[in-house]
Amino acid sequence: MTATALGLEAVGPAQWRIAPTGAMRVPGVVFASAELFPAIEGDQSLRQVADVASLPGVVEASYAMPDMHWGYGFPIGGVAATDVEAGGVVSPGGVGFDISCGVRVLVSDLERGDVSPRLGRIMDRLAEVVPCGLGRGGVWGARSDEDLDEILVRGAEAAVEAGFGDAADLTHCEDGGRLAGAAPDHVSARARERGRGQVGSLGSGNHFLEVQVVDRVFDTARAEAFGLTPDRVCVMIHTGSRGLGHQVCADHVHVMERSMGRYGIAVPDRQLACAPVRSPEGEAYMGAMTAAANYGRVNRQLLTHASRRAFEAVCGRVDLRLLYDVSHNLAKLEDHVVSGSRRLLCVHRKGATRALPPGHAELPAALRGWGQPVLVPGSMGTASYVLSGIEGGPAFNSCCHGAGRTMSRHAAKRQVRGDELARRLEAGGIRVRAHSMRGLAEEAPFAYKDVDAVVAACEEAGLAHVVARVTPLGVVKG
Amino acid sequence: MTGRHAERSHRLRPHTADAIVEARGSTQADCLAEAVTALAEVYVADAASLTPTHRIPVDVDPHDPAGSLLEEALFVLDARGLVCVGADLARSHAGVSGHLLAVPAGDVDVTGSIPKGIAGAVLRPHDGTWEIEAIVDV
C-alpha cells in the first residue's frame, strides 16, 4: 500500500504520520527517509502499521522503524505499546515467531593484523563448533525436562552456572540474561520437543555468526567506552529461540484466536490475534514468551562459549568480552510516561531494538554513562552498526534491528547462485562458511535495504546515535 | 506449478521475508499431501522425487486442516530430524488422516532457509478442485 493511499504526512525529520481513520485508535508513525520509501511501499507493511493502531489499549502511536517490512501481523520493525491496566492487549504477532531473536557482540583483544593470517583457520573452526542448518543438534546436547526448566526460568544464568561463560557475560546482557516471570508450565510438550536438541544452535535464514572488524568510528568517546576502536576484531551473533520459540508462538496464537470473541475483541487481521495482558490467555502467553526469551539468551550464550573455544584453538588465549546482548523480538512490561502520567505498558518490539538512554538504571555500570549499545546487523557482505540509546528517544526508546529485506528469497535466488555469491564475497575478502551454498543466495546483500541509509534515518529521526560501523571478515551461515 | 501427479500441483510465491506455498489437488486429501511436498521444496531440492523411508501417522485437525498438517511436518523436522516430503492421506469418517512420508534430514540437499512456523494456511475449493495457500515463516 502506498504512502499516498494512507495519507502520510511529514511531521519531522525522517518522520511521517498516518492519521487515524476507521478502527485506528492512535496514529501510525513511520520513521524513514525519503530514500527508503520506495522499498517500504513495495509490500504490505504500511497497511500493517495502520492495522496495529487498532489494537485495544494501544497508546501514543503504532510505530515503524526505518528497516520496516512485511511481517506476521505486525510489520517487522513495528513497535506498539498497550496500557496494561486499561485493558491493553498482548499480541504474539507483535513479537514474532522467533521469540527473543536478538544480537550480541563480543569485542576481542585482537586487531585486524592479528587475525588476517589465521582467518581461514578461525572460520573453519567456527564452522565446526557452531551447529547450524539442518540436523546438527546444539552445543549443549539434548536436554532433559528438568534442564529445560532451568533454561526457561533462569536464562543465561543457567548456561553460565554450567560453565559456558562468566558473570560478566550476565552483567552485559539485557535483563542480566534472565527475564523474570517465566512460566514453563505454559510451554507445551511439543515446544519442548522441538527445542530439546537445539540448545546452542544458529539455525538458518537471516541468522549468522560473523567475525567483524571496526572500520569506521563516528563517536570516538563512546566507541572507546564500548571497546570499538578502529581495526578492533569483534564477533556478532544473531539467532533466537529456535523451534521452541516458534512453537510457543503458534500454540498461543491458536488459543487467542479462539478467545478474542469472549473479550469482545475484533482485529482487522487474524494475525493480530491478541488477549488482554490481564487475562488468563494473556498471562499464559507472557509466561511462555518469557520462558522462550530465556531459551534465546541461553542459545546466544552457548554460541559465545563455542566462539571463544574456536578462537583459542587457533590464536591461543583471546579475550572475547561481551559488549551487550539485546533482543529485537519481544513484548516487555515497562513503565513509561504517556500524556503526562506514568503507566505500565506492554511494549511490543517486533524487529525493533530497545535503546535505553544514558543513565538508565538497567544498564551495567560500565555502559550507564553512555547509553545502551544498539546492535544493528546489516546484510552479509556490507556492514553492521553499533548505535547508542539517547535521552528522550521516541517509540518507547526503540530503534531499528537491521537493514530489513527488500527482495524476496525467491527473487534473490533467481539473481545469483550461492556458489557465485560466495566467490564474490571471498573476492571482497570475506570468508564464507555456509551449511547450504544454494541457500546462501537468499541472503545476498542486494536482497536488503542499504544499512547505511537505514542507520542514517535512525540518527536523523532521533531514535539513536551512531557510534561505530563494523564490516565482516568472515561469516558462518546456516 | 509442478507436481508428481497430473491432477496435483504446487508452486512457491515470493514474500519479502518468508515464503508462500500454493498447492492444488482434486480432493482435499490430495491437496493437503501436495502442500506437504511444497513446504519441503522451500528448503530441499526436488523433494517430490525423494523416496520416503519413514511413515508418521497423522490426523488432520478438521478446524485447521492445512495449518495443522504443515505445522506437524515442521514438528517432525525439529523433534525427529525427518524431512516430510509428502503424505499419504485419505478421507475418513473423522476427517482426513493417514501418514506423513519422510526422509532423514541428513539425506537431503538443502537449498534454502529452513521453515520454522506456519503464519497462516487456507484450504478452499477452487473450480471443482481444492487449493491451499500458506505463508511459511523461515
Give structural notes.
The complex is a heterodimer of chains A (478) and B (138). With 478 residues, chain A is α+β, with helices and mostly antiparallel strands. Chain A has a single domain (3-406, 448-477), classed as tRNA-splicing ligase RtcB. Chain A is 34% helix and 26% strand. Chain A contains 18 helices and 19 strands. In chain A, strand 12 and strand 13 form a beta hairpin. The mean pLDDT of chain A is 96. Chain B is α+β, with helices and mostly antiparallel strands. Chain B has a single domain (23-137), classed as Archease domain (Archease, Possible Chaperone, Chain: A, domain 1), CATH 3.55.10.10. Chain B has helices spanning 28-40, 65-80; strands spanning 9-13, 19-25, 54-59, 82-92, 95-104, 117-126, 129-137. Chain B has a four-stranded antiparallel beta sheet with strand order 1-2-7-6, covered by helices on one side. In chain B, strands 3-5-4 form a three-stranded antiparallel beta sheet. The radius of gyration of chain B is 13 Å and the shape is globular. The two termini of chain B are 22 Å apart. Chain A binds chain B through residues 42-43, 69-72, 76, 97-98, 133-135, 190, 193-198, 203-206, 242-243, 246-247, 249-250, 254, 270-271, 405-411, 413, 435-436, 438-439, 442, 478, and chain B through 12-19, 43, 45, 64, 71, 74-75, 77-79, 81, 83, 104-106, 108-114, 116-120, 135, 137-138.
What are the main properties of this structure?
heterodimer, A: 478 residues, alpha+beta, tRNA-splicing ligase RtcB, eight-stranded mixed beta sheet, seven-stranded mixed beta sheet, 18 helices, 34% helix, 26% strand, B: 138 residues, Archease, Possible Chaperone, Chain: A, domain 1, four-stranded antiparallel beta sheet, three-stranded antiparallel beta sheet, 2 helices, 42% strand, globular
